[in-house]
Each structure stands twice: as structure tokens, then as C-alpha cells.
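Thread title: Can someone regenerate the structure for this chain?

I was given the following input by a collaborator and told the matching C-alpha cells would be attached. They weren't. Posting the sequence so someone can regenerate them.
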Amino acid sequence: MQLTQTSTIDNNVKSTTTSKLLYIDNLKIALTILVVLHHTFITYGASGGWYFTDKTTHVGAIIPMTLFVSVNQSFFMGFFFFISAYFTASSFQKKGAAQFTTDRLKRLGIPLLFYSFILSPVLSYIVYRFAKGHQITYLQYLSGFDGWIDFGVLWFVAALLLFSLVFVLFSSLKKSKRHQLKKVPSALAIILFAAVLGIASYAARIFFPIGWVLKPVGFQLGHFPQYIAMFWMGIMASRNNWLQGFELKTGRLFGWLVAFMIVVLFPIIYFIKESTNSSIEELCGQGYWQSLMYACWEQFTGVFIMAALLIISKHRWTGQSTVGKTMSRAAFGVYIFHPLVLISLSVAAIGWPMDPGYKLLIVAPLAVSGSFLLSMMLVKIPGVNKII
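Best answer:
Regenerated them for you:
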């Protein structure tokens, strides 16, 4: 499991003020909250890598945590790429290649440098000093620190920058011409798209199993078939105005399919894993049939969730309160700084006389609210608010 997570939406995209796209802002808030919860669940029991973990041993807590992380991983980062890409084509057309590239390098590159060279060493020191108990100062720790290039959760930002630059290159080379609008994909087309993604993910994981990380950028290439596909789908949706054409009944259909994938098929997959004594490694890749089974479940589930959320929110989640607008503005800052809040809280909770499963119930809401409050303050700082 990669450090996500998670994981947030393109910070170039300013909150839209039109009611037609307020649901995108609302989705951005929900996905950002899921990022924080994702890492909190990994901290206290679900499988995955994180700076600090204090995992429960109770199976009754581990199973729902694992289900949450598995379902979350199936869609939330792919959804971020889709939403970010949705605004990429129009931004490129408005600004032109030079200005668009400069803007991306500034708004995505500066957070990458800040996280790698400033925030990442601080996070590592907090764990080293207060969780592991090494009595050294921060300057002493830095003298032996060798992990300077570490994007951590900002692997998403690095990937988004890469995808954006590739998009600029292809768009610049391709002659601009009017194109015939493609009709909105049918439910069947979306299902077939999910099937292709399942097979592509299985093929990628033969060489790059889940958990294999391309260092130092932090890319888990086993997940990238979905990320690349969803970024391209975001471009296509923007160019062809797809979001305005989906009907509510299609969203409801995918909602029922999501329930089937989680309530019915996930327990079946778990039963097959246990009855065949399959290992986690066999589910993660390297060409095993169990990997094909899991990759298909993951991609069908993820695509169905994205379709259901996007379509239903378009019809039902079109309003936004003042608090919602403020949270939307702070979302990118939450993505950058939530590790600081979560790690500080979880390290402080080490000595609490309770099982880590119960700590989750306390730390999770504190991490979410604390991360948003911190970001809301940061976006008021002149200069900083131009980046996040």
C-alpha cells in the first residue's frame, strides 16, 4: 500500500461558483476526508505502509478496516485524477501551452519541494524521537538524515504533474481542429471499461505487484493503469461535455452494482482466499489467478463507485454551504499537511490505555477536523494561498 493516498485533487482548480459544478467541490471534500481516514485506518489495523503504525490484533476490528481500505483504494485516487483532468483541457485551451506549463510547475512543483525537503524530515523525526524514543535533537537527526527525496503522499501531485506535461506535449504536437462530440458512455460501455481495466491491472501487476514502489517518487505502478485511464477519461469527459448527459437512473444502477460488489462478491473472494490458503502476495500480483480475481473485483468496484458518486452527486448534491465552500478551498492543504496532524495525534496516543482499535474512533475525527482547521489557517497566509 502506498502513501496516499490517497489519495488530493488538482490544486490548480479553483472552486467553481456555478451551481452546475458545486457537486465537484463537494466530491473533492468527501475524497479529501477519505484520504485522511485511509491513512488513519492503516495506522490502526489495515494493511499498508505509513510513517507510524499502532495496529490492533483483534480480527473483529482488522476485517472492517481492511474492507474500508480495499474499497477506498479501488477508486479514490483514480477519482482524483479524473476530476483533476476534467479541468485540464479547458485550462490548457485558455492559458496556452507556455502559461499552463509554468502554472503547473509552480502550483505542483513547489509543494513537491516543500514536502520532500521540509515536511518529510519533520514527520520522520516525530516518529524517531517520540515514538521510538531516541533522545536526539532535530538538528542531530538531520545530520544523519538520508531521505531527502521523498514525495510521501504527494506522489499523486508528482504523477499529476507528469500526466499534465505529457498532455501538453501531445496537445502541442497535435494539430488543433474541431472534433465531433462523442456521445455519453452507456452503462454497458462503463462496465466494459471496468473489465478492460481489470485485465490491464492484472497484467501490470505481473511485473509490478501491489506494494512495489518506484522510488524515490513513490509510484505504485500496479495501480497506474487505472490512474492513467481515469486521467484520460477526465480529458474526454471535459471535451465532450459528458457530465451533463448522465441520467440519475444510471447512477442508481451503479449504486446497486457497488452494493453487490461489496456485500456479495467481497465475502466470496475472502472465502476463496481462505479456503484455498491463498497468500496476500498471490492476491497482489505476479501472475497468480488470485491476482486476476482481485484485480477484476477492484476495478469493477472502483469504476462503479466513481460512476455512482459522479452521477448521483450531479443530480442530488448541487448545493453548498459556507462551511462547505471553506472546506473545499482548504482541501489541497489538507492533503499536504494531514500527515503532520495524524502522525502527531497517533504518536501522542501511544500511551493511552486502550486497544488501538478504540484509538481509531478518537483519532480519526480529530485528524480530519485538525487537518482542515490547519489548512484553513494556512490558506489565509499571503503567498501561501497562491500555492495551496
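The chain has a mean pLDDT of 91.
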